[in-house]
Specification:
- The structure is a homodimer.
- By secondary structure, chain A is an alpha/beta fold.
- Chain A folds into two domains: 66-134 and 145-270 and 480-527, Aldehyde Dehydrogenase, Chain A, domain 1, CATH 3.40.605; 275-458, Aldehyde Dehydrogenase, Chain A, domain 2 (3-Layer(aba) Sandwich), CATH 3.40.309.
- Helices cover 35% and strands 20% of the residues of chain A.
- Chain A has helices at 49-62, 67-83, 85-96, 100-123, 173-181, 194-210, 225-234, 247-259, 288-299, 318-332, 342-356, 385-390, 411-420, 436-449, and strands at 8-9, 11-13, 16-18, 24-29, 34-41, 129-132, 146-152, 156-159, 185-188, 218-221, 240-244, 266-269, 275-278, 311-315, 362-366, 379-384, 402-408, 424-430, 453-458, 497-503, 524-526.
- In chain A, a hairpin with a 2-residue loop joins strand 2 and strand 3 (16-18).
- The longest helix of chain A has 24 residues, at 100-123.
- The first copy, chain A, starts with 7 loop residues before the first strand and ends in a 7-residue tail after the last strand.
- The relative contact order of chain A is 0.13.
- The interface between A and B is large, with 83 and 83 residues.
Chain lengths: 533, 533
Amino acid sequence: MTTLTEATYHSLIAGEAVPGTDGTLRAIDPARGTETGPEFTTLAESQADAAAQAAAEAFGTYRKLPDADRAAFLTTIAENINAAGDDIIATAMTETGLPQQRLTGELARTVNQLKMFAKLVASGDHHSVRVEPALPDRKPLPRPDLRQRKLPLGPVLVFGASNFPLAFSTAGGDTASALAAGCPVIFKAHLAHPGTGLLVARAVTEAVTAHNLPAGVFSFVYGRGTTVGQALVKHPAVKAVGFTGSRSGGTAIMATAAARPEPIPVYAEMSSINPVVVLGSAISGDSTALAEGFITSLNGSAGQLCTAPGLIFVPAGEAGDTFLSQVKTALSQAAGVTMLTPGICSSRVEGEKKLASVPGVTEVGRGTEGQTQNAPAPAVFSTDVETFLTREELSEEIFGATCLAVRYSSTEELKKLAVGIEGQLTATLHLDTEDSTDVALATELVELLELKAGRVLVNGWPTGVDVGDAIVHGGPFPATSDGRSTSVGTAAIDRFQRLVAYQNLPAALHPAPVREDNPWNVPQRTDFLSQLS
Amino acid sequence: MTTLTEATYHSLIAGEAVPGTDGTLRAIDPARGTETGPEFTTLAESQADAAAQAAAEAFGTYRKLPDADRAAFLTTIAENINAAGDDIIATAMTETGLPQQRLTGELARTVNQLKMFAKLVASGDHHSVRVEPALPDRKPLPRPDLRQRKLPLGPVLVFGASNFPLAFSTAGGDTASALAAGCPVIFKAHLAHPGTGLLVARAVTEAVTAHNLPAGVFSFVYGRGTTVGQALVKHPAVKAVGFTGSRSGGTAIMATAAARPEPIPVYAEMSSINPVVVLGSAISGDSTALAEGFITSLNGSAGQLCTAPGLIFVPAGEAGDTFLSQVKTALSQAAGVTMLTPGICSSRVEGEKKLASVPGVTEVGRGTEGQTQNAPAPAVFSTDVETFLTREELSEEIFGATCLAVRYSSTEELKKLAVGIEGQLTATLHLDTEDSTDVALATELVELLELKAGRVLVNGWPTGVDVGDAIVHGGPFPATSDGRSTSVGTAAIDRFQRLVAYQNLPAALHPAPVREDNPWNVPQRTDFLSQLS
């Protein structure tokens, strides 16, 4: 670790290093299975309160920041992260086992997300302003002047993800969209990459200082999820939660948030096995490339992507057999990749054992183990439709490069599968788009799958999420806790806002975004209904 | 009751009259305190399943209806209600005690809401389509074709309100916005106006038939909230709930929905005391008109409006004393109005007794009792800031024409009140907008109150909600279960939709709203980010 040269580091609460009193931790280099880097003190439950208080105090100022200033702040965070990029990537490589190329791409994505939100905020689009001017002569009653906008919810608690130490962590999508909305962020560090997180947290903190913002706009805390994390979910100053992680972790947060005296929204991205449907026409010719593409998508980042294909529906019969034998060949050339932590690796190995032990499940093929510690071989199993639909454990996510192929014998069985699956982040179809029979079937399948998934793809692989204005990274429960929303892309900002209307306020009392002279040059939708036929 | 001439009526499940096996009920004429009209059979818990099943079956067809067809269906509902207007109003007058003029206005609002959603749906605006066409040459990675839209959630369960037998009931705002979104509706009838509900349910059912829609698009069920209501909240086919009623009823539904294997969104509008802040400048001259306006707003519909002013902050000192003496005078000329049910009336009377018994609370004045049964006198009480902030029961809603005046001695106390209140539907300021000191204070107060309320008003009264594009009828908990949204106005449709994206679909597989040739002429936001600086 190049820039973390002290022996001990601490949480950063409102810009101040606060030694935790609940012991210390160190990162583990998963490739070696050994501790690495300095030690980090973890907060006791009672110490978390200060971060929530500071965020609540900062909210009053931060939420009123002009759009241009908030955009500039987000841009500075992006620039600070870029400037520290080499150190961040080097530290992340050691702490997560992820290769340099992947982390370089992830850092660029993290920076670009922040810049995207800066552009969005500068445009004022996120205020969603609607104006209906007074109509004093309307009958039977005059219409008052009404102006609607979206306001930030308040301090947001964000839990970092293990598998994206940058793009879904300290200054990742949840943090960026919450800050963009005008919400201070309390970031609960993921303890598997404590040094990486701290370097990014410093980049954010320096931006807070550079823009003379209240220090409570951002805090970064080390602490156990079950104590510090839960205490912050319960804290009255916290008004929303963003989380990326396991189903058990996410549902525990949902339960705590729902049981608060004032329940708050939870945006937890949890569990998805991302079904891929292979139609007959996709494998009627040579399916070697399809098989290779599948294994590349499955084994990328050791399968530790929210959108990794954990489930594939393959026709029964000869063409399907051939496809799976090509999958077996592709697997035989694939080596295991270092997983993020020894714990994640052992869960993956245990999950696979459990899967393999279900009667009716057989192994299609498996790759080789990787050269490092914690690098189990990628593997594909198969089963039939009835086994899949009757054994609930086969729908559980195994986080890693393990996939289950379900062999279907008819379009009826395939539709039953599409109806039977739980909520997903993605659903993918492979077909020959010149085959009219399969196009007709795919039309029906898209209609079933769009009810189950946040993103529907054709002839691609679900891994790799394009960050922009039209992306959805979300989906019905249990993929997320709130299938109405997305955690990636511009629409993610909506999660941290609420509607408010102003009635008959004199001009002097209007907040800037709804003012008639529109000083921030915000898009205002005026008298929309009168323009409709 | 003019059109309900049979002895017994039943629930309407997917267009069929289904006799309930859990006994019968009759309406009570609250003005006389006697039973009235025919009997209605109530469903047993096990009978509710059929409505949910029918809604689930109808969803597949109904959600795909072209915008123009769904708009025509909503328009037919509006026309059917209008055609049956005289019968509906006559029945509602008997069942609710509300006067003809109020119900005539409410019927017009109900009809206009449906027509507004028809216009909105015909415009295609609600799909919120965003398109990012493929950029095959983008570096470092090509951009896929991505198209985002909003989809209906699925069958919605709506609980009718006691206080708006038309506009927040059978074909009221929740039903209209859910149907507009493409969601079938199961309507749990309010048992205080069973005949009114049935007449409106027939108007909806006839529109379903006239447009050849699957019958399960709409069901209307009589049953107990604790059995039939709860069973439907738990039903796996139900994907969202709309509710208007008490805090205890709303939070019970929230708890059930959160505990489901698949948690679902609940939009409950529950409890609000709608603080009104009187600044010094508002009463520095003659405050007679202000006092009269206040009592008119308080006593309208017997105070049984979600936005009735239940709390008013009045300056301590002489001007405030004078204002309250004018309030007392206005009250002395105000007579009690028939309340909706004997139960609501007795809760109001008990709540007022409890309020009056709190040490530090005194009576300002009271009107006269009405001429009918269940028409208690409107009343205003007063207390000081410390008593208000330390006695939690003083923040509880008393549904009816009872208001508590809190006397404040300084701007600091006033701000403490604004910070100390719970979430509200509305917050109102009264001031002389030419008084620069009060305008400065009001600027600070708007910033505090917009965090607590869904709608902020100046120099008006919160009762009376204008239905349009810029209204917000919502607010932080406990005003609603989901302060992000509104239950009135065009934005209400968003509650029943979720995001989905399509990646690299061939044109033949695109759903109509996202198609490049745009057959429904839907607004499509294309390549938004590239247009920003």
